[in-house]
């Protein structure tokens, strides 16, 4: 049987419903079975909410899904705005590799992110005192892919120097 994460009321309820429905569709179970299985993947606040429902008040999984998502709407994930990337800056002692990981993680939270916005935000977020922005300005890459390739080469060089330092 496919596994489904337990929901405690703190994650995105829509994502949880999607994961649950996908697993149930794979098993080709009925709507009634879905209603009976659903509480087995709830815990803490979510389980308490389910137990508070009036007996025989749910007639379909669709109805249960709507009630569940309405109740836990405040836990829903919110997609970020592209301008939020401008707040991501490389910290004083942060390596380029760590900054790149943080930046990439943030870009995954933005739908339809324009490559030029991504490029600009990444470059603006670099610590101006580091050598990498200077290197980029000497021969600017034409797009984000080329900028990331250059960053990865720079990271490899940094890591090589770090491991071979006396």
UniProtKB/TrEMBL annotation:
Chain ranges of the Retrotransposon gag domain: 37-128
Pfam families tied to this protein: Retrotrans_gag
Domain of life: Eukaryota
Protein name per the record: Retrotransposon gag domain-containing protein
Organism, scientific name: Escallonia herrerae
């Amino acid at each position: 049987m496919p596994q489904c994460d337990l929901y405690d009321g703190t994650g995105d309820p829509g994502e949880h419903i999607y994961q649950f429905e996908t697993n149930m569709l794979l098993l080709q179970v009925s709507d009634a079975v879905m209603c009976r299985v659903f509480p087995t993947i709830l815990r803490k606040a979510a389980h308490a909410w389910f137990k508070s429902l009036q007996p025989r008040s749910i007639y379909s999984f669709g109805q249960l899904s709507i009630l569940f998502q309405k109740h836990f709407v405040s836990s829903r994930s919110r997609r970020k705005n592209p301008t939020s990337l401008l707040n991501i800056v490389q910290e004083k002692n942060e390596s380029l590799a760590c900054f790149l990981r943080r930046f990439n993680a943030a870009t995954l939270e933005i739908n339809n992110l324009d490559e030029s916005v991504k490029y600009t935000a990444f470059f603006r977020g670099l610590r101006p005192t580091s050598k990498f922005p200077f290197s980029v300005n000497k021969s600017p890459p034409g797009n984000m892919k080329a900028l990331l390739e250059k960053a990865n080469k720079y990271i490899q060089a940094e890591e090589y120097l770090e491991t071979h330092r006396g």
